[in-house]
């Protein structure tokens, strides 16, 4: 091989490696300026339930979406899956999976992506399976509906995945859903979600219906499999404990908006937004119900200011300027906060 050919080959390999590195590090999911609206009737008044949301997740990253009940977490997750309730719609923005805007896909294309490229694990894991069909048959049919593989090959893969989620594979394969415990069913639904080796997993309150110990085990399993598959995970949880313990990055939502986001470590050690601070303070040592958990934050979770900062009606630090919409601004190396007081802090410190 001539010197020129060798050099050309080396440059091509280098370019391939660069592309690989970029692919590994460029986001799997990018949400840009996403708003989700409810219209009273056709052409009627618009109510924005999610407002101008921006976030991204890279391969191997677990991002936690936290916030009280009603803050817009599940609507965001449903929009990514193309499963918003009929009465709601995306009124602006983009949802990009590896650069492809999901909002431009047909229902059929979206159906193909959902379940295969984007897997989802819900709180109601019972809904992952049809009650009167054995788990094995359901897994085999799901595998064969996405990939053209033979029945024996699909059975082999289904058994393998039941093993990977640490279930007695043969036994679960020939069981009906109601014969499984809650923890077993959630593991089986994990197998059903991950067997296509998705690039993105959306887990919406995956442990809320489980007891503490079983829930922790399911999350351990999810974290382990995420590492093996190097996929991105969006962990939606009102339980800050899970988000703080498990995720690499997090976004805190209030009233349909992200009020603070960044590296989990950074937000945990140095929360800047009053809502994040109160959420962290309200975090229980023992297990309480969701309502008790947030009782320490003044006011009700649904108290959302119509103008300016969504948290203004509950914020102990609010001042006149809070009735202007706060912009998201850097508040640390890996942290962004939407709060007028962050600016005020800066002014005060500089004075
Ligand atoms: N189908 C719907 N029609 C009207 N409002 C809805 C619908 N679904 C959710 N909402 C409202 O949108 C807000 C956000 O809901 P959701 O995303 O489910 O919150 P979270 O998951 O954070 O608890 C809530 O105020 C809720 O009442
Ligand atoms: S902008 Fe104002 S009301 Fe909103 S969180 Fe900051 S201080 Fe509180
Ligand atoms: Mg929810």
From TrEMBL:
Cell compartments where the protein resides: Cell membrane
GO molecular function term, any single one: ATP binding
Membrane topology note: Peripheral membrane protein
Keyword annotations of the record: ATP-binding, Cell inner membrane, Cell membrane, Membrane, Nucleotide-binding, Translocase, Transport
InterPro entries cross-referenced by the UniProt entry: AAA+_ATPase (IPR003593), ABC_Ni/Peptide_Import (IPR050388), ABC_transporter-like_ATP-bd (IPR003439), ABC_transporter-like_CS (IPR017871), Oligopep_ABC_C (IPR013563), P-loop_NTPase (IPR027417)
Record keyword tRNA-binding present: no
Keyword match Cell membrane: yes
One term under GO cellular component: plasma membrane
Domain ABC transporter: 29-280
GO biological process assignments: peptide transport
Pfam families documented for this protein: ABC_tran (PF00005), oligo_HPY (PF08352)
SMART domains documented for this protein: AAA (SM00382)
Protein family membership: Belongs to the ABC transporter superfamily.
Name the UniProt record assigns to this protein: ABC transporter domain-containing protein
Protein's organism: Domibacillus epiphyticus
